[in-house]
Amino acid sequence: MKIAVPKERLFGETRVAVTPDAVKRFTKLGVEVVVEKSAGSSSSFTDQAYKDAGAKIAATAAQTIASGDVVLKVRSPDAKELSHFKKGTVLVASLNALNDAAALSTLAKSGVTAFAMELMPRITRAQSMDILSSQSNLAGYKSVLDAASELGRAFPMMMTAAGTIAPAKAFIMGVGVAGLQAIATAKRLGAVVTATDVRPATREQVESLGGKFLEVDADMEKDAQTEGGYAKEMPPEYFAKQKQVVAEHIMKQDVVITTALIPGRPAPVLVTADMIKSMKPGAVIVDLAVEAGGNVEGSKPGEIVETANGVKIVGHLNVPGRLAEDASSLYARNIFNFLSPYIDGDSGNMTLDWDDEIVTGTLVTQSGAVVHERILGMMKTPVKKVTLKKSAPKKAAPKKSAPKKAAPKKSAPKKTLTKTTKKVSSKGELS
């Protein structure tokens, strides 16, 4: 089996899907890895480092992609990249699957078998494969550093001969992976930290890190979490009360970091223009949800906006990519942990287990169709549904075997299957 790793072409994307360390791990399993020239340069990984790890370097994206049975990417391929994919190629990437149905339809039509890593089930066995956690962890850390660089004062309390400097006050909105890391980082820098979340279970996590939990409405927050651990969309009356509580708290803060995301939906607005007007001049707000519509009214993707009253709203894009080396390393490990259980270490071939919830939970396109249940339910235009059980062993043969004269026709599909198993078999085997 051959794994292909093209260079990311989306503007501002500095990460790479496979690091030299991941190449070593794959080659030990008998897998051949082809990396496009300069694919890791923005993440501080040289072509020589990839060669030393056992990878082959291809000159162009076309050569790289065409050589692979499995293509690994950070972002979804664009139209030009997709034109180089062979039918039946396996694609593993972060595909923004819940928000970009049109791109998924295009992937399906191309015949690519695509896995969206951001849909990884939240089960214990899959924690080491969870790209949302690994990347959000870095984003939460970096958000505090970005805030510190824009804030015109120090984070910790300082006692000097000239007088005492009071510690900065930081307010974290949304206590997921990014929020927890932001709390921990702000505390390490010496700030007084408060945090809020619709999920009451996060109170203990906030307090364990030395922060103070800001509660909005305990009764409404009882049922604010999905089975997968994500925040649910709350009713309008909750947001009305949240605005009142937050408005009173936010005017005293030096730093506000918002991290609230709802999978498949626009980010909820947590900080309004009126709240921003009440804040002190020089205060900084970092909107980590800016790419999903933003938690902050007035935030702009890729910009730092300064309001009339002197508040800075930071809307950096691809925050994990601002720590490209570590972000790539964690992402590459997530992908290796996802694929390696299905790779035969002797032959280097991969056989996917279609009964494994990790496989079915991330599979979005197969056999020319979108196959993920949740995405099918969200798509406005009906898409032909192909279930895994039907798409693997085709059970049309018994119908042809009814007439005795149909026997010769039986042998034809067998020859076709023999040919296709060299790439992707009906059982998911790659060679």
Write the layout of secondary structure elements.
Layout: E1 2-5, H1 20-28, E2 32-36, H2 47-53, E3 56-58, H3 61-67, E4 70-75, H4 79-82, E5 90-94, H5 101-109, E6 113-116, H6 131-150, E7 158-160, E8 163-165, E9 169-173, H7 177-188, E10 192-196, H8 202-208, E11 212-213, H9 236-250, E12 255-258, H10 273-278, E13 284-287, E14 304-306, E15 312-314, H11 324-339, E16 350-351, H12 357-362, E17 363-366, E18 369-370, H13 373-378, H14 388-391, H15 397-401, H16 407-420, E19 429-430
Give a quick rundown of the structure.
The chain is an alpha/beta fold and 431 residues long.
Over all CA atoms, what is the radius of gyration? 25 Å
* Helix content class: 25-40%
Shape: globular
The class by helix and strand makeup works out as alpha/beta
Ends distance: 4 Å
Broad CATH class of the largest domain: Alpha Beta
Total helices: the number is: 16
As residue ranges, the low-confidence spans are 381-403, 409-427
Mean pLDDT: 87
The fraction of residues in strands falls at 15-25%
Overall domain count: 2
Q: Give the total of beta strands.
A: 19
Strand order of the largest sheet: 3-2-1-4-5-6-17-18
CATH architecture of the largest domain: 3-Layer(aba) Sandwich
Fourth-level CATH superfamily of the largest domain: NAD(P)-binding Rossmann-like Domain
What is the CATH fold-level name of the largest domain? Rossmann fold
- Largest β-sheet summary: 8 strands, mixed
